[in-house]
Design brief:
heterodimer; A: 747 residues; alpha+beta; 22 helices; 27 strands; globular; disordered N terminus; B: 170 residues; 6 helices; 5 strands; 11% strand
Chain lengths: 747, 170
């Protein structure tokens, strides 16, 4: 991997056009910082030290510009600043900050380049580094791809260090002593003779002082905050009911709205009759949208109630109408005309399959909804030529540009207030709900409108994890596979989401179609991974772990089948074929933790799966018991390697959380379509794992990796194959289609 | 119509079919109880009616008779974090919440469970809590926190001397 010849064959995804654009701008401009977006937004007593720190006599605010949707990014990003600034995390407040290109995410495009995350060649490193250029020009203020920590690791520490040294300089001037005689500790600057000046008391002395240019970062051996488990900065609000989510915004004179959209995805509305609904109590107005209607009322429930009473003549969409048609689109894409990439082609698979005993199978996974606990919602107020938007969202700069398009206002006249999110999982990248709130605010100028989708609208109008199919042919050697010819097909998330809807150039292959298949550090003599791009008949988007969510299941179920075909221990076989030390270590860790290989009672089974996604190798073992009420998942073991574990307790939470998310989808997650409409609508028919089904967890965090990595997604992909492999071990039944509940009962 | 929430009597004028949740959230600005599904399938809206957990999203306000308690009524955090109830203290200690959206409902369900069954078995915890969905999958910590809270209720003296794990966040 990583040779120049191969790179020239692999054009980049949205990178290619964007990188060309970046080069045209010139590298010198890349070095110039964006303007600090806080400067125009300060209270009179406030001063800003970089776009990440605000200080006043009342306290210190840290701007953690990644969506806090549960993954703990606010705590970990603020901890990076706190380490260098030398303050207690409990002594600062943490906010999302405004939408701004200054908060661009330099790490989010790393996954879009055709280099495996384990590829540390200089070419791979250079190209990864180079993605920071277009990331900056595009100004992607975005949360996704488990990139918040990778992006923030240097950036946030540097912000803390700049703020610290600038405060020391201010103290030096105040005290008329050399800065070199002063130290910073616990929220204060201290002199040689022990006098302390609190940072907040220096706020007023910061005028005219330039930001420190070359601050030193604290060596890891001297860290006091990082590497320690922190109490989350949002925990207190979340156990007292006082945390403010998007849906909790309260404004004077506010009205409440909901929408009803054409159930047939992509279909328009022919006509509607609102006469009955308008007579319902509390209704203020009914607004026509291009694919449905909105009701504005004095209470959200009045809006829900009246929306049901609007008589609507829906136009059927032109697209595929049935689940069978949608599946056929994917099955038919296993064809050269739809070939998207072949990023791995080692040895000669065709020769390897000649005159050999071939094991082959086909695997299927369905569309999935994100089903975040907080239904989509946004509040908008248009007043005096200024638009304010309050919403939980993963991509504030996109929300702002869409709002500008709709309202005709300049982006400077639009303020995005990002609030806590009741889950994201990729769902809140796309601002459809914000666009709708803007349209409603324009109809009721001067009054804030809070739009809340019902759970039913949320489930039936998601942008889904794509339906996907994989086929493989394998030939076993004595200890490891000799030949693997793996093909995977799905719609392209990048093309549908980034290209069609976000308007970012998306050309070339989409590495995510074969994510966590082509890039796995396994050593197989003949090893070929081909991705086919099916048409996106239904809008698809990022769903926690994106392409790894399907390919983890396909690839790791395949390896289990191959191992069992030869009577091999599937964990031992993986150890024999793994070619990456941190990955080997996570496999060995779960082997020990799960007491792998020890005898199990009849009807009990263990399954192993390994997956490297977003640069994080994860190995998981699931233990199940086949009871008379069905399969019971009893234990889950996971070992992960994040390079540097900044907050072990939060990492552990993301591992069992991500694992439960993957188990839920594997067991019961499925969205199907009929007449062009999603057939699942709420938690009664799109259920999730509950406490009585959640296993006991044992988790180990390793630090052998070379780069610091995020852990929001990587624990999800191995969950489904580990479970399916455990079910095979317990029952002898090989299930090749998700959700597993279509084929087996769960207790 | 009069309704008692967290010991305060409110006079409201709404459609009698309006679910209690929307009276709380949109009429009275009591935002702890959350809207998740609207059909009693997720538990995010759980409040207590005379000490019993109910799903306020599906409970018509006209059927409410007696005292309603929401998470805001469990403690007075603005004054003193130590006033948090044993369940909330345990939630802090175990750092349970991730996105946190379901946690008001989880805490109300757990509080009701421990009021009735101070020393629940695993099966009793599962039975009481499985109606409360958490898409972040925080169940292992919810269960651990319930056990901690149960232990602290059994030994009230130790609870009083325990410092809260977190003083004040955002």
């Amino acid at each position: 991997m990583g040779t120049l010849a191969k790179v020239t064959r692999r054009t980049f995804l949205f990178g290619s056009v964007a990188i060309a654009g970046g080069a045209a701008f010139g590298f010198w401009k890349y070095r110039q910082p964006y303007e600090n977006p806080l400067s125009k937004r300060l209270e009179p007593s406030e001063k800003t030290l970089t776009p990440y720190v605000i200080i006043s006599k009342d306290g210190i605010k840290i701007i953690a510009p990644r969506a806090e949707m549960g993954q703990g990014s606010h705590t970990s990003l603020a901890a990076l600043v706190a380490e260098e600034l030398r303050v207690k995390l409990s002594d600062v407040s943490v906010i999302h900050g405004p939408a701004s290109k200054a908060y661009y995410n330099a790490a989010v495009m790393e996954e879009a380049v055709p280099f495996a995350q384990v590829d540390e060649s200089s070419l791979a490193r250079n190209v990864r580094e180079f993605t920071k250029v277009p990331a900056k020009f595009l100004g992607l203020h975005i949360t996704g791809g488990s990139s918040s920590i990778a992006d923030g690791f240097d950036k946030m520490r540097m912000a803390g260090a700049v703020a610290r040294d600038t405060l020391i300089e201010a103290a030096a001037i105040n005290l008329r002593v050399p800065a070199s005689t002063l130290t910073a500790d616990d929220g204060a600057v201290t002199t040689i003779d022990g006098r302390r000046i609190a940072y907040i008391d220096l706020a007023e002395s910061l005028d005219g002082i330039e930001l420190a240019k070359e601050p030193m970062l604290t060596p890891q051996s001297e860290w006091r905050v990082l590497g320690q488990s922190q109490d989350r900065v949002d925990m207190f609000g979340k156990v007292t009911g006082t945390a403010e989510f998007g849906i909790d915004v309260e404004l004077p004179e506010m009205l409440f709205a909901t929408v009803r959209m054409n159930p047939s995805i992509g279909g328009k509305m022919r006509s509607f009759d609102a006469s009955k609904a308008l007579n319902e109590r509390g209704v203020e107005s009914i607004v026509e949208l291009d694919n449905g209607i909105a009701v504005i009322a004095t209470n959200t429930w009045y809006a829900f109630n009246a929306a049901r009473k609007v008589a609507i003549d829906w136009q059927q969409s032109d697209g595929p109408q049935t689940q069978k048609e949608l599946l056929n689109l994917v099955l038919d894409s296993f064809d050269d005309d739809y070939k998207d990439s072949r990023f791995r082609d080692d040895g000669d698979c065709d020769e390897g399959c000649e005159n050999a005993e071939i094991i082959s199978a086909e695997y299927h996974v369905p569309y999935l909804a994100h089903a975040a606990m907080e239904p989509l919602n946004a509040t908008a107020l248009l007043k005096d030529g200024h638009l304010d938007i309050w919403a939980g969202n993963q991509w504030p700069t996109l929300a702002r540009s869409k709002a500008a398009e709709i309202s005709g206002l300049s982006e400077d006249d639009i303020e995005i207030h990002t609030l806590l999110m009741g889950g994201g999982f990729g769902r809140r990248l796309e601002p459809v709900y914000i666009e709708q709130a803007v349209k409603l605010a324009m109809k009721h100028e001067g009054r804030p409108i809070k739009l809340t989708w019902t759970r039913e609208e949320d489930t039936t109008h998601d942008h889904y994890r794509p339906l996907a199919v994989a086929r493989f042919r394998g030939v076993m050697g004595d200890h490891i596979p000799e030949t693997i010819d793996f093909e995977t097909a799905s719609a392209s998330v990048a093309a549908s989401q980034m290209g069609e809807r976000a308007g970012i150039p998306a050309v070339g292959p989409d590495p995510a179609i074969a994510q966590s298949a082509w890039d796995q550090p396994y050593k197989v003599p003949n090893y070929r991974v081909t991705a086919y791009r099916a048409p996106a008949a239904i809008p698809v988007s990022s769903w926690r772990s994106v392409g790894a969510s399907q390919n983890g299941f396909f690839h790791e179920s395949m390896l289990d089948e191959l191992a069992h075909s030869k009577g091999l221990d599937p964990l031992k076989m993986r150890l024999d074929m793994i070619n990456h030390l941190p990955s080997q270590k996570v496999l060995e860790a779960v082997q020990a933790m799960s007491n792998w290989g020890s005898p199990l009672p009849k009807g009990t089974g263990r399954g192993i799966a390994y997956c490297l996604s977003f640069g994080v190798p994860v190995a998981e073992v699931i233990e199940v018991v086949n009871t008379d009420r069905g399969i019971k998942i009893t234990k889950a073991f996971a070992a992960v390697d994040v390079g540097v574990a900044l907050d072990p307790r939060n990492i552990e939470a993301q591992v069992f959380g991500g694992l439960n998310f993957g188990l839920a989808a594997a067991m019961m997650g499925e969205v199907t379509f009929d007449k062009g409409a999603a057939q699942q609508s709420n938690f009664h028919n799109y259920n999730s794992i509950r406490m009585n089904q959640s296993p006991d967890f044992s988790i180990k965090i390793l630090e052998n990796g070379t780069r610091v990595k995020g852990i929001g997604e990587p624990a999800t992909p191995p969950a489904a194959p580990a479970l399916a492999n455990a079910i095979f071990s317990a029952t002898g039944k090989r299930i090749r289609e998700l959700p597993l509940s279509k084929h087996i009962k769960f207790a | 119509m009069k309704i008692t929430i967290n010991k305060i009597v409110h006079d409201i004028d709404v459609d009698p079919n309006m679910p209690l949740l929307w009276v709380l959230r949109d009429e009275l600005n009591i935002k702890g109880p959350k809207f998740g599904c609207g059909i009693s399938m997720c538990g995010a809206c759980t409040v207590h009616l005379n000490g019993q957990p109910i799903r306020s999203c599906s409970y018509p306000v006209s059927a409410v008779s007696g005292e309603v308690t929401t998470i805001e009524g469990l403690s007075n955090p603005d004054d003193d974090p130590k006033s948090l109830n044993a369940v909330q203290q345990a939630w802090l200690e175990h750092q349970v919440a991730q996105c946190g959206y379901c946690q008001s409902g989880q805490i109300m369900a757990a509080t009701a469970l421990l009021q009735k069954t101070p020393n629940p078995t695993d099966e009793q915890i599962d039975a009481a809590m499985s109606g409360n969905l958490c898409r972040c999958g925080t169940y292992p910590r919810i269960k651990a926190a319930i056990k901690s809270a149960s232990a602290s209720i059994s030994e009230p003296t130790s609870q009083n001397t325990t410092e809260p794990a977190v003083k004040q966040g955002v």
